[in-house]
Amino acid sequence: MVEKVKANCNYSGRVVEGPTNPIVTPLLTDLYQFTMAYAYWKANKHQERAVFDLYFRKNPFGGEYTVFAGLEECIRLIANFKFTEDDISFIRESLPGSCEDGFFDYLRGLDCSEVEVYAIAEGSAVFPKVPLLRIEGPIAVAQLLETPLVNLINFASLVATNAARHRFVAGKSKSLLEFGLRRAQGPDGGLSASKYCYLGGFDATSNVAAGRLFGIPLRGTHSHAFVSSYMSPDEIIDKSLQSADGSSSCEDFVSSVQTWINKIQWSNSLRDIFGETNQSELAAFTSYALAFPRSFLALVDTYDVMRSGIPNFCAVALALNDLGYKAVGIRLDSGDLAYLSCEARKFFIAVEKEFGVPGFGKMGITASNDLNEETLDALNKQGHEVDSYGIGTYLVTCYAQAALGCVFKLVEINNQPRIKLSEDVSKVSIPCKKRSYRLYGREGYPLVDIMTGENEPSPKVGERILCRHPFNESKRAYVVPQQVEELLKCYWPGSSEKPREDLPPLKDIRDSCIKQLERMRPDHMRRLNPTPYKVSVSAKLYDFIHFLWLNEAPVGELQ
C-alpha cells in the first residue's frame, strides 16, 4: 500500500482524495460492465437517467443487524472516476475489434459529474432490503460503478459487523485489539480489516500501516521468538536504568530483578506455587523492560505460565516499581485461558498483599490464541480475569461467513420504475426511487425501517402510519413514531447544487457506530436466536410493488 492518492476533483470548495488503495480505479470492475456500456452507447441509450439501489438480502453471521461501512472509499472513487489513456488502450484491446472508436472517445471524457449518490451514514446499523446507497445518473456510468461499489462495501460491512459482534460478546469494559494482519487475505484484506474492525468497535490494531493511514491506535509487545532468543541474563550488556522521574538510576537492573525473584520464591504466600523459573525467560523479560520500562507487557506462556512466566514477570514488574514505573501486564497465548487468567490474578493479588504494592493485583491480563465469538462467550460463562483480547484470524477473515452478498439493482429508468422478479421471493427487488426512514418508539429503541415512494409525505412524529411487509400481505402493523429519522442523505451531488453531507473522521464514525448499536433493542442484538428487526414499506408502495409485479410477470397458459 502506498501513500493516499491525491484527488483531481475539487467540488464545494473541497478536494476529495483518491481511494486509499491505488488499485481502486475505474478498471476495478467486471468485463460485462464495459460490454453493457458499449451496448448502451451503441443504442444511444447511455445517457438515459437511471436509479440503482445497493443493498443486501440477509444479515450475516446468523444475526439480525449489519454495520454499514465503506462509504468513504466509494465517494473517493466517484470523486476521482476518470480513465487514463493507458486504461482506454487496455479496454480497447479487451473488447471485440468491432467496437467503434466513438465509444472510446466517450470513455475518455467520462466522469461522475452527472452522478448523484445518496447513502445511509457510515457506521449505521442497517438491515436487509433497505438501500445502503442510491445511485442516480446516466445508465452507462452508473453501470460501470456497480462492481467497485459492491466490492468496497461488501467486505467492509462484513468485517465491521464481525467486529461489532465480538464487541457485544466481550462487553463494553474489555479492550479489543485486532491482531489479524498476518492471517488476512493479502495486504489490502489486512488493511481493510484493521480499518473496519476499528470502526466496528475495536480499540486498537497491531497493523502499523493501518495506524499510519487511518490514525488507529497501535498495540503490540513481543513474540515467543523474542523470549526464546535469550539463553542467559549474561547476554544483557547495558544493565542500567534511570528512574521514572529521572532523579536516580539503578546501575544493575538485572541484579534488582534477581533479588525480586528470590523474594517471591521465599515469600510465605507464593513459595508453594513454583520452584526455579526459566532464567532465559527472565533474561528476555528483563531486557524488554530495559527497552520499554513505561510499557512493559510480557508474553508469559513460552515455557510454563504459572511456574515460570508469571513469577518472572512479577520480579521484573516489582523491580520497575522500585524505580517508579508501572508495568502494563501479561499476555496469555495458549492453554486454558479462563483458568490461567484467574490463577494469574490470584498471584498478582498475593504479590500486592505480600509486598505492599498498591494496584499490583489489578495488573492487566491480555488473552489471544485464535479467539472468536464462541470462545469469548465460553470464557464469559466459565468466569475469567481477562481485561483485553487480541483477536486475529477468525475476525479479519470473517471465518464464519465468506461474504455479505450485496447487490446492485436497477429500480428506475427515465422516471419509469423497474422491478426484478424471481421465483425466490427474497430476490424480488423493490422498484422506484425511494426514501427510507427509521421509526423510534417510546423507549428510544428503533422499531422499524420503512421505505416510501419518493413523493410520498414523510412519516411524522405522533401520527399513526401503516407499515407493511414488502411481500407478505398478512404482515402489517400500525406504528406511532416518537422520533423519525430519514436515512438516505446526499453524499455526492455531482454538478447539482444540492447540499452534501460531510464525510466524518474514522474515530467519529466509530463513536457513532458504538452509540447506535447501544441504542438497539437487546433482543435484536443477542448472539443466539435474535429477534428479527422489521423492515417495511408504506401501504402505497406495497400496492405499487404488487401492481408492477403482476404487470411484468408473464401469464402462463395450461395446455
TrEMBL record:
<dbReference type="GO" id="GO:0046872">
    <property type="term" value="F:metal ion binding"/>
</dbReference>
<feature type="domain" description="Nicotinate phosphoribosyltransferase N-terminal">
    <location>
        <begin position="27"/>
        <end position="154"/>
    </location>
</feature>
<protein>
    <recommendedName>
        <fullName>Nicotinate phosphoribosyltransferase</fullName>
        <ecNumber>6.3.4.21</ecNumber>
    </recommendedName>
</protein>
<keyword id="KW-0662">Pyridine nucleotide biosynthesis</keyword>
<comment type="function">
    <text>Catalyzes the first step in the biosynthesis of NAD from nicotinic acid, the ATP-dependent synthesis of beta-nicotinate D-ribonucleotide from nicotinate and 5-phospho-D-ribose 1-phosphate. Helps prevent cellular oxidative stress via its role in NAD biosynthesis.</text>
</comment>
<keyword id="KW-0436">Ligase</keyword>
<dbReference type="GO" id="GO:0016757">
    <property type="term" value="F:glycosyltransferase activity"/>
</dbReference>
<dbReference type="InterPro" id="IPR036068">
    <property type="entry name" value="Nicotinate_pribotase-like_C"/>
</dbReference>
<keyword id="KW-0328">Glycosyltransferase</keyword>
<dbReference type="GO" id="GO:0005829">
    <property type="term" value="C:cytosol"/>
</dbReference>
<keyword id="KW-0464">Manganese</keyword>
<dbReference type="InterPro" id="IPR007229">
    <property type="entry name" value="Nic_PRibTrfase-Fam"/>
</dbReference>
<keyword id="KW-0808">Transferase</keyword>
<dbReference type="InterPro" id="IPR040727">
    <property type="entry name" value="NAPRTase_N"/>
</dbReference>
<keyword id="KW-0479">Metal-binding</keyword>
<dbReference type="Pfam" id="PF17956">
    <property type="entry name" value="NAPRTase_C"/>
</dbReference>
<dbReference type="InterPro" id="IPR041619">
    <property type="entry name" value="NAPRTase_C"/>
</dbReference>
<dbReference type="InterPro" id="IPR006405">
    <property type="entry name" value="Nic_PRibTrfase_pncB"/>
</dbReference>
<comment type="pathway">
    <text>Cofactor biosynthesis; NAD(+) biosynthesis; nicotinate D-ribonucleotide from nicotinate: step 1/1.</text>
</comment>
<dbReference type="GO" id="GO:0034355">
    <property type="term" value="P:NAD+ biosynthetic process via the salvage pathway"/>
</dbReference>
<keyword id="KW-0597">Phosphoprotein</keyword>
<feature type="domain" description="Nicotinate phosphoribosyltransferase C-terminal">
    <location>
        <begin position="433"/>
        <end position="544"/>
    </location>
</feature>
<comment type="similarity">
    <text>Belongs to the NAPRTase family.</text>
</comment>
<dbReference type="InterPro" id="IPR013785">
    <property type="entry name" value="Aldolase_TIM"/>
</dbReference>
<dbReference type="Pfam" id="PF17767">
    <property type="entry name" value="NAPRTase_N"/>
</dbReference>
<dbReference type="GO" id="GO:0004516">
    <property type="term" value="F:nicotinate phosphoribosyltransferase activity"/>
</dbReference>
<keyword id="KW-0460">Magnesium</keyword>
